[in-house]
């Protein structure tokens, strides 16, 4: 059954900063003309993830690990999940241990295909929830955490090129995610106004049935991951010339593709 309504509002804070005019040490340059481009690109993207972990204040980028998200708002109707929920003061940790498994760049569109593995992600914050998961009515407000483990994420990033000040830049217009996980643990405190017997039994049931729980939460988790990635990719590549990443990219840009 299709979802009648699905909205995720994600708020991230970035600060404005001037883009890199000199290639930073954490950037590895690869060439599309090189037969070993994919291997080089994999190493280059791994270096980017390693640099993003503590943040890049030079271009106003907040740390990726831990990542602080002030607010996440979720509204979804029909299907196995029907929730009106909010997460505040969210802290996401684990992305600093990202292992890049594959990195490919389309030779014509320059869209990215990236495959990564994250051993464990922990999402914690304050929730406010009213709805149902797996037909179980849930209501409560309090502290919560979720821990997906052995997560493999396939990322397709839509990209357009533009020219600015003699540099070529990537304009990332979209991020599409598919993922698998090896396990999921979670805890929501103060369910049902703190009635401990209902709270404990519900949490135990959700953990014991983590596979269907994970599947029912997949649209929400996918959209949240996509929004986080899109924000980071846009901020990064609007401030990091594409020439620094792909040394022969300028030969492929049209003169009409300029951003004022």
From TrEMBL:
<feature type="signal peptide">
    <location>
        <begin position="1"/>
        <end position="17"/>
    </location>
</feature>
<keyword id="KW-0090">Biological rhythms</keyword>
<comment type="similarity">
    <text>Belongs to the TO family.</text>
</comment>
<dbReference type="GO" id="GO:0007623">
    <property type="term" value="P:circadian rhythm"/>
</dbReference>
<dbReference type="InterPro" id="IPR038606">
    <property type="entry name" value="To_sf"/>
</dbReference>
<dbReference type="InterPro" id="IPR010562">
    <property type="entry name" value="Haemolymph_juvenile_hormone-bd"/>
</dbReference>
<protein>
    <submittedName>
        <fullName>Circadian clock-controlled protein-like</fullName>
    </submittedName>
</protein>
<dbReference type="GO" id="GO:0005615">
    <property type="term" value="C:extracellular space"/>
</dbReference>
<keyword id="KW-0732">Signal</keyword>
<dbReference type="Pfam" id="PF06585">
    <property type="entry name" value="JHBP"/>
</dbReference>
């Amino acid at each position: 059954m299709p979802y009648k309504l699905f909205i995720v509002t994600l708020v991230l804070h970035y600060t404005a900063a001037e883009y890199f005019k000199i290639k930073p040490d954490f950037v590895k340059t690869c060439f599309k003309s090189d037969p070993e481009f994919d291997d080089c690109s994999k190493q280059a993207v791994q270096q980017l993830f390693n640099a993003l972990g503590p943040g890049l204040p030079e271009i106003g980028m907040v740390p990726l690990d831990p990542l602080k998200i002030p607010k996440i708002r979720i509204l979804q109707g029909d299907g196995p999940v029907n929730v009106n929920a909010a997460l505040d003061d969210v802290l996401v940790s684990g992305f600093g241990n990202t292992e890049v498994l594959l990195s490919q760049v389309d030779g014509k569109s320059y869209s990215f295909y990236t495959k990564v593995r994250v051993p464990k992600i922990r999402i914690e914050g304050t929730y406010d929830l009213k709805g149902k998961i797996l037909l179980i009515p849930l209501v409560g407000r309090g502290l919560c955490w979720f821990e997906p483990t052995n997560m493999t994420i396939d990322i397709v990033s839509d990209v357009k090129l533009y020219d600015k000040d003699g540099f070529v830049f990537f304009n990332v217009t979209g991020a599409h995610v598919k993922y698998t996980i090896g396990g999921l643990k979670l805890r929501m405190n103060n369910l049902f106004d703190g009635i401990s017997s209902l709270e404990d039994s519900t949490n135990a049931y959700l953990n014991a049935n983590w596979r269907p729980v994970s599947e029912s939460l997949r649209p929400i988790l996918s959209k949240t991951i996509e929004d986080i990635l899109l924000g980071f990719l846009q901020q990064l590549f609007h401030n990091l010339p594409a020439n620094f990443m792909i040394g022969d990219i300028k030969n492929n840009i049209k003169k009409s593709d300029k951003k004022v």
